[in-house]
Design goal:
With 429 residues, the protein is of the alpha+beta class. 14% of the residues lie in helices and 27% in strands. The chain folds into 2 domains: 174 residues, Immunoglobulin-like (Sandwich); 195 residues, Oxidoreductase, molybdopterin-binding domain (Sulfite Oxidase, Chain A, domain 2, Alpha-Beta Complex), CATH 3.90.420. Strand 1 and strand 2 form a beta hairpin. The protein starts with a helix and ends with a strand.
């Protein structure tokens, strides 16, 4: 990481302590924790500042391709095929082909379908020709709706899917787009996703388009990440972002065909706003503040703040409050956008003069117009006041831009994992 990134977040840490100094009257005071009075906390406590600064210094915004957590399927995994089979399967940039055809079991009409049989299927070279006019990029956190934390955050680049659909000259009777990934020509391994045609042809306000993605963090997307081409949908959970894309059907059928529907999932859910810990302290020292860092996934209604709460294990939880709405939560600090994004991103990919515009960034300054970015994430950091010796449950949560606290307004796991994370902390004398 570059020095500028460290310096920016160290500045945030200093601002945090200055603010705490004002809040606490600039001196030593007792701070309540879950109804207990802790040891005095000095706003200028150098040891606590150094501990928090060290944690913040290690934060990196983008996830390198090789560092993404992976949810994958296939036997064998498509990207692990021998080179000759990889080429035959169309899983190299030179051999990749994409069919865009009408669903044969509906009455959808296309004037110029893109087919392998007559050699009109889209090639990677043709996709790059479209990229010269239409390519876009955006930040997105890839997250699985059944996993408790994100898989990684990337800068995804591609061509809007609608540009390829229009090449097939659709005419009428089209309600949905179905898309398929390569899975060894085995129907049992086939993985599918779908969207309403309206979402593909027109973007919701402020949201990037659905893309045929070929780059991640400024480099060609790897086979493990779904290359040479995959679908990336800004607002959707990972299962709809189909890897190893090979076929697109336009259909007049009203129903979705997503593979995840068979797994008792809400396949149309937009991403939720969620906070998670990065540093998970298991031990603490009585009389010393507790430094915390984490990430906040920005869902459909964004993130306005992150809070943490330390609760003694020997005290009962609030009654009739299953989502801890009335607990004594304490605000943490949402960190600003970094100056350098990390993740192996080459120079010039984000910033003035970038070849491909980054959605939500000012092209003149190269800085985001708002933060956190929708469907991406932000880091957070802060100190919990010192607590007496004992065993505690440490929790964090996100508050969205409407003032609604995680896991609400959609607490049900079918539409995305949004539970309040809990960590056991032991504070010793």
């Amino acid at each position: 990481m570059r020095r500028g990134f460290f310096e920016e977040h160290l500045d945030v840490t200093r601002r945090y302590f200055l603010r705490r100094s004002v809040e606490l009257g600039g001196g030593a005071v007792g701070v309540g924790v879950s109804g207990l009075v802790g040891e005095p906390v000095l706003a200028a406590d150098k040891a606590a500042a150094a501990a928090l600064a060290a944690l913040v210094k290690d934060l990196e915004y983008l996830t390198a391709q090789a560092a993404f957590r992976t949810v994958e399927r296939g036997n064998p995994l498509p990207y692990k095929l021998p080179p000759e089979k990889l080429k035959a399967a169309g899983l190299t940039r030179e051999s990749w082909r994409l069919e865009v055809v009408a669903d044969p079991e509906s009455n959808a009409e296309l004037q110029k379908p893109l087919r392998l049989a007559d050699e009109t299927a889209l090639t990677f070279e043709s996709l790059m020709q479209l990229a010269g006019k239409h390519s876009v990029s955006f930040l997105k956190t890839m997250t699985c709706n059944n996993e408790d934390s994100p898989l990684g955050t990337g800068l995804w680049e591609g061509v809007p899917l609608r540009e390829v659909i229009w090449k097939a000259k659709p005419v009428s009777n089209i309600r949905r787009v179905w898309f398929y990934g390569y899975h060894n020509e085995d129907p049992k391994q086939e993985f599918r996703g779908s969207l309403a045609i309206g979402r593909v042809l027109e973007d919701p306000p402020g949201i990037p388009p659905v893309i045929l993605c070929y780059k991640l963090n400024g480099d060609w997307i790897s086979g493990k990440r779904g290359g040479p081409v995959r679908v990336v949908i800004p607002e959707s959970y990972g299962f709809k972002n189909i890897k190893w894309l090979t076929k697109v059907f336009l259909t007049n059928r009203f129903n979705a065909n997503d593979t995840y529907a068979r797994g008792n999932n809400d396949i149309d859910s937009w991403m939720k706003s969620v906070a998670r810990f990065i540093s998970k302290p298991r031990r603490g020292q009585a009389g010393q503040p507790i430094p915390l860092t984490g990430l906040a996934q920005s869902g459909i209604n964004g993130v306005s703040k992150v809070q943490a709460w330390l609760h003694p294990k020997d005290k009962p939880l609030p009654k009739d409050d299953p989502y801890f709405q009335k607990a004594p939560w304490q605000d943490m600090e949402l960190l600003p956008a970094p100056r350098a994004f990390g993740g192996g991103l080459p120079d010039g990919v984000i910033g003035p003069g970038a070849a491909v515009p980054v959605h939500g960034f000012d092209p003149k300054t190269g800085r985001p117009s708002s933060w956190p970015q929708a469907y991406a994430m932000a880091h957070w950091a802060g100190l919990l006041p010192a607590a007496p010796a004992g065993r505690y449950d440490l929790r964090c949560r996100a508050i969205d831009n409407r003032g609604v606290a995680q896991p609400l307004p959609r607490p049900f796991r079918k539409s995305g994992h949004s539970n309040i994370e809990r960590v056991t902390l032991i504070v010793r004398d």
